[in-house]
Specification:
- The protein is of the alpha+beta class and about 130 residues long.
- About 20% of the residues lie in helices and about 35% in strands.
- It has 3 helices and 7 strands, in the order ααββββαβββ.
- The protein has a 4-stranded antiparallel sheet with strand order 1-2-7-6. A 3-stranded antiparallel sheet has the order 3-4-5, with no helix packed on it.
Length: about 130
């Protein structure tokens, strides 16, 4: 457990906002992250021009991941065909794969999105 249950209400939030500028509203951020069933970490970040979905997918590489956007849904499928140099229990999990679905906010332009994968971190970027 962190020192503060809600990072948006920490004593340092004002300092962070002053240094980095405004962050997405608490309600908007919670609508896309809080209460999700998947065990993988997913983050929703926005700036003036873009919206980012950041997925932690340890053990997977770019060729193992498919990103699909249909209407207002973002789907990430990851599966490793033949995991090398990993323990059998982990190899089985990586072969089984994962599927994560996220609702995309209505203010986001879902056409012409970009994605990149590096060190088990998938970044999907949309224009506002």
């Amino acid at each position: 457990m962190d020192w503060f249950d809600d990072p948006f209400e920490s004593p340092f939030e004002e300092i962070v906002r002053e240094f980095f500028g405004d962050r997405p509203s608490r309600k908007r951020r919670q609508a896309y992250i809080k209460g999700e069933d998947e065990t993988n970490s997913v983050d929703f970040i926005e700036d003036d021009k873009h919206v980012y979905f950041i997925f932690e997918l340890p053990g997977y590489e770019g060729g193992d991941v498919a990103v699909i956007v249909k209407e207002n849904t973002l789907e990430v499928n990851a599966s490793k065909k033949s995991p090398d140099n990993v323990q059998p229990y982990l190899a089985q999990k990586l072969e089984q794969g994962i599927r994560i679905r996220k609702r995309i906010p209505s203010f986001v332009k879902t056409k012409n999105f970009e994605h990149s994968m590096k060190n088990g971190i998938l970044e999907v970027r949309f224009k506002k």
